[in-house]
Amino acid sequence: MNAPSLIVVGGGLAGAEAAWQAAARGVDVTLFEMRPVRNTPAHVSDRLAELICSNSLGSDKSATAPGLLKSELRRLGSLIMSCADETAVPAGGALGVDREQFAALVTQRIESHPRIRVRREEVTRVPGEPAIIASGPLTSDALAADIAQLSGKEYLYFYDAVAPIVAADSIDLSIAFRASRYDRRSGDAGDGDYVNCPMTREEYDAFVGALLGAERIELRRFEQEDPKFFEGCLPIEVMAQRGRRTLAYGPLRPVGLRDPRTGARPYAVVQLRQDNLAGTLYNIVGFQTNLKWPEQKRVLRMIPGLAHAEFMRYGMMHRNTFVNAPAMLDATLQYRARPDLFFAGQIVGVEGYVGNAATGWVAGVNAARWLAGETPCVLPRETMIGALCHYIAHADPRDFQPMKANFGILPDLDPPIRAKRERYEQYARRAVRAIEDFARGERVESQRDFA
Q1: Cα-flanking dihedrals φ and ψ of residue 56, to 5°?
Q2: HEC-encoded secondary structure of the chain
Q3: Rounded distance, CA 284 to CA 270, Å?
Q4: Which pLDDT value is given to residue 445?
Q5: Under a CB-based contact definition with an 8 Å cutoff, are residues 178 and 187 in contact?
Q6: Given this model, what pLDDT does residue 288 score?
Q7: 229: buried, middle or exposed (CB in 10 Å: 19+, 13-18, 0-12)?
Q8: Which residue in 107, 168, 325, 422 has its CB near the most CB atoms, within 10 A?
Q9: Which residue positions in the chain have pLDDT lower than 50?
Q10: What is the structure's pLDDT at 220?
Q11: How much is the pLDDT for 181?
Q12: What's the rounded Cα separation, in Å, for the pair 67 and 7?
């Protein structure tokens, strides 16, 4: 007998995970990725699962929502988590990866899988055969228009921002210092996971003034009129515009850090995080920006320690496209009007690299189940993956907005726990028990979710 076949559109985190999970369950997968035949405004390579914003996958601590999501995926045999763990770089309590090695490893594993065929061409229409749409935030205009026509609903959009990356050897470490927040051993020993650029109040005020006066890339009319523009990932200049002290209480907050030159806490601190395993690249944490490139070079070199910074990538803005998922999808990530069609990734309304991979896992597994004549599964709501999929399917479609992993979407504990740290730990323990039961097939919710 011939194996069942499946089309996956999009070679990002969700598409790669979906293709891998379906293929692991005996499905012949054709994975379409339009790069390099057609590039996007944000990607710089043709590799699968290329990370176009930060190289951090967020907190890896089990008692945090992002850390719990990673823990669940590891227990479920996630391709993306396996590759991330193998290409990890120092990032404090977060999981940072060498973005080039990570994408190269995902690409190698996908291309070498005997049941996966990668086709480098653009898909402009929703396939009429079993498929997963994981085309991501940079879905081409043609495919986005066809998705909108298919659903009969207007698709939504917001915009995301990319932070600049600088060469490590261009950072002045006679001014900047290595330290992680609250690590008393860092700074003096120079062994922290972050490079910190300390600012006095005068330096901070001058920097904010320059930031506010810098030229930005001109917005188109419909972008100017959109009240939600930038809200998904605020550029540094937009934050500064909301108050001259906003940055000092946001990404530049100095708490938990002391300048080893003075022994005092700086007025503000710009942090840089290692971006590759070799330690030759660092990204400026939280510095997404829409400034023109010459202005970025001028203004960001005002940061102490970055006066001679060599920019390996400038910040930029790019479009995020997502569907009105509660009006279209079940918690199985099936399109309600066509059970052989699944959606996954940022296009369904999840935020964050790992959230995208999680929905790819769900779509890939459920597509394989459907093709085998089995009922697609709904993960327990006590798990972070299950809670995200439940949100996608049950949020109010009148004001649906993307959601990232957070404890607020999990069912309440019984009995309730008031202390936040203990409450989060209990959420995590309950979720791990549920995902382990699910993985053993003991708590699979096999019914379609129309609640």
Answers
A1: -95, 135
A2: CCCCEEEEECCCHHHHHHHHHHHHCCCEEEEECCCCCCCCCCCCCCCCCCCCCCCEEEECCCCCHHHHHHHHHHHCCCHHHHHHHHCEECCCCEEEECHHHHHHHHHHHHHHCCCEEEECCCCCCCCCCCEEECCCCCCCHHHHHHHHHHHCCCCEEEEEEECCEEEHHHCCCCCCEEECCCCCCCCCCCCCCEEEEEECHHHHHHHHHHHHHCCECCCCHHHHCCCCCCCCCCCHHHHHHCCCCCHHHCCCCCCCCCCCCCCCCCCEEEEEEECCCCCCEEEECCCCCCECHHHHHHHHCCCCCCCCCCEEECCEEEEEEECCHHHCECCCCEECCEEEEEECCHHHCECCHHHHHHHHHHHHHHHHHHHCCCCCCECCCCCHHHHHHHHHHHCCCCCCCCECCCHHHCCCCCCCCCCHHHHHHHHHHHHHHHHHHHHCCCCCECCCCCC
A3: 7
A4: 38
A5: yes
A6: 87
A7: middle
A8: 325
A9: 184-189, 442-451
A10: 59
A11: 81
A12: 31
Q: Using CA atoms, how far apart are residues 404 and 66, in angstroms rounded to an integer?
A: 9
Backbone angle region of 442, left / alpha / beta, with phi > 0 → left and psi within -120 to 50 → alpha: alpha
CA dist 398 and 63 (Å) reads 32
CA 199/CA 206 separation, integer angstroms: 10
Give the pLDDT of residue 191: 64
Looking at this protein, which amino acid is placed at residue 70? Answer: K
Give the model's pLDDT for residue 443. 38
Q: How far is CA 10 from the centre of its chain?
A: 15
Phi, psi of 74 (to 5 degrees): -60, -40
CA separation for the pair 84, 14 (Å, rounded): 14
Residue 286 token pair: 């939280």
Contact 343, 366 (CB under 8 A): no
Q: Each residue of 228-262: pLDDT tens digit?
A: 555 556 789 989 999 999 999 999 999 999 999 99
Distance (Å, whole) CA 309 – CA 51: 22
Q: Are 126 and 341 in contact (CB under 8 A)?
A: yes
pLDDT digits (tens, 9 = 90+) for 113-136: 999 999 999 999 999 999 999 988
The domains located in the chain, with CATH, are 5-155+323-439 (3.50.50.60), 162-318 (2.40.30.260)
CA–CA gap between residue 418 and residue 277 (Å, rounded): 41
Give the Cα separation of 200 and 208 in Å (integer): 12
